[in-house]
Amino acid sequence: MASVFRSEEMCLSQLFLQVEAAYCCVAELGELGLVQFKDLNVNVNSFQRKFVNEVRRCESLERILRFLEDEMQNEIVPQLPERPPPTPLPREMIMLETLLEKLEEELQEANQNQQALKKSFLELTELKHLLKKTQDFFETETNLADDFFMEDTSGLLELRATPACVTGKLGFTAGVINRERMASFERLLWRVCRGNIYLKFSEVDTILEDPVTKEEIKKNIFIIFYQGEQLRQKIKRICEGFRATIYPCPEPVGERREMLAGVNAKLEDLITVITQTESHRQRLLQEAAANWHSWAVKVQKMKAIYHILNMCNIDVTQQCAIAEIWFPVADTGRIKRALEQGMELSGSSMVPILTAVQSKAAPPTFNRTNKFTAGFQNIVDAYGVGSYREMNPGKGSDALNNGEA
Amino acid sequence: MLEGAEFYFNVDHGYLEGLVRGCKASLLTQQDYLNLVQCETLEDVKIHLQTTDYGNFLANQTNPLTVSKIDTEMRKKLCREFEYFRNHSLEPLSTFFTYMTCSYMIDNVILLMNGALQKKPVKEILAKCHPLGRFTEMEAVNIAETPSDLFKAVLVETPLAPFFQDCMSENTLDELNIELLRNKLYKSYLEAFYKFCKNHGDVTAEIMCPILEFEADRRAFIITLNSFGTELSKDDRETLYPTCGKLYPEGLRLLAQAEDFDQMRRVADHYGVYKPLFEAVGDGSGGKTLEDVFYEREVQMNVLAFNRQFHYGVFYAYTKLKEQEMRNIVWIAECISQRHRTKINSYIPIL
What we know:
Membrane topology (chain A): Multi-pass membrane protein
Helix content of chain A: 40-55%
Protein name (chain B): V-type proton ATPase subunit
Distance between the termini of chain B: 33 Å
Strand content of chain A: 5-15%
Distance between the termini of chain A: 10 Å
Structural class of chain A: alpha+beta
Largest interface: A-B, 25 and 27 residues
Radius of gyration of chain A: 36 Å
Number of strands of chain A: 11
Oligomer: heterodimer
Number of domains of chain B: 1
Largest sheet of chain B: none
Low-confidence stretches of chain B: none
Organism (chain B): Leptonychotes weddellii
Radius of gyration of chain B: 21 Å
GO molecular function (chain B): proton-transporting ATPase activity, rotational mechanism
Keywords (chain B): Hydrogen ion transport, Ion transport, Transport
Strand content of chain B: under 5%
Number of strands of chain B: 0
Structural class of chain B: mainly alpha
Mean pLDDT of chain B: 86
Shape of chain A: elongated
């Protein structure tokens, strides 16, 4: 039945371990989850502790795992193993390191290839749309030519029957720019060129994919007509500034049609190559997904063990590690068994020694919970963790009423 | 503005003031600096910073760790916090934030123009620009040849437009003129900011005006110091001094006539605030430079800004203190990475 006190009785002991056995014993205690270690090295800076290098190695493994997780993201779901994997031994860390580093390298290479391919795909798609649209621009201008130029507006818009403005009067620049920047681009062009240019733009109907961020981007096609070399330089620099890509667009209709055909052929080739690289990348990610969860848990366990070992007092001369732990008195047997198991696993001969220590400090409050009661205990703790062994008022009122203990 | 800010301030700005005070509480303490100074490598610096509010900000950096990576990540963090404050602010706090970003914008514009002069690629310079001073037309700055071009084409839509009144001239932009342009822009900016704070009144004016006055006088002293031995004429020099400080008008006139450090010191001796600062300056090597002394005074004023409530100065003070902390960390990291530890303790302690 429930006791008079709310939390369990705790005792403080000093634990003497052999240095080789320390890792395995701490691992076994960790699996039990019944022990709180006191930090014996409070005055030591975090970067001067003994196992700093191992913690650093675990952190770089975690970085690689995070990178893999980002890559897998929405495409693949890592499989959850049925049971959490056992704590790995220190020598397994080297194996994990080589494995994860190799995987990271391969994946980064695959990503780079894919990005380069997608970039050229994007450029060719943009060029294709540009060629189609400039066809429309030039054709509408020829329709206007008859009545539009009745007045003698010389200089700017002398388009002739042939759509080409090639006879030295007007040059043109054609390119593609992000839709968000279109407005300020137009305004800046107007101001810098003092209105001496003619800009026409239209939207690209299909949505394009950015090679690096994999987000959808919307673009506009623009074509600028101008006169003179200075304006061309200015326009070129403004386009560079706004990150608009300029494409060389040939003027005669025949050349444009040829270019369009060439672009379409290249696009088809690229699509096949892209699908192949994508499937290679997916294969790599599937490999990673199969084991990702167990690797993550293993690395987390290793890092936790090294953090705990940092808290212990390692006495090199006597080859032993000293730790101070709080644990519930009721579990003394289980803890002793766990320590013996750890000692066997590491193959050391010295039995870990547990000695009780008196202390005036307030012991930690420990409430034994299971999967069901843990939720309720969390709610209670959110209002404030109870003090050690506080009285259980419910039990007391029973005693008052019935005289039962 | 109505007196009695305590009645109205929290309605619009209370959340942000609470947030910025929380951020200020997580600035590095003297104990943190003592620990950092004991680090042997940059990896140790990274491990120690994990225990502070910076947390795992360097977690995704691959080896080897360099000082510039640390600086970029710290700056990104400050930028995120600043953008959060700015996005959640209402008027007139939003205008206040815009004024704060103007100084970074001026620096970015000058950086881009210098880069254009030296024909460096735009992307390289963009990487060096301060993220808080970003604006959309930034990349097009290099096409301008003269200041009036620059204004009419590029900057007329940015918040920097009103500061260009005194700078419109047809001189082409070469190196000396770019520096003059920077100082003139900054002078107009500082005076406009000062007027804004003063017109706002209330606690904000009480806190911000002394800080901006000190900033103006500090610039006057530094301009004077930098112009010794150059071709800058005395009249030109006087036009560069901001007029919103304590030195205006007699001090500025005397400063314009000064020809060496001692004459400058004698001008400062007339003012009770600046006399002890100049006395603390060591001579030659060893001891503090004038800039160090000015930084210390700035830090002092910014820390005191947190003793009053219900004003906008806390945001300004927090940004400046965070920048000083970043300068400190970069100084310590440089000393560690170059193994030149003699001057490692010359950072400026904040709290």
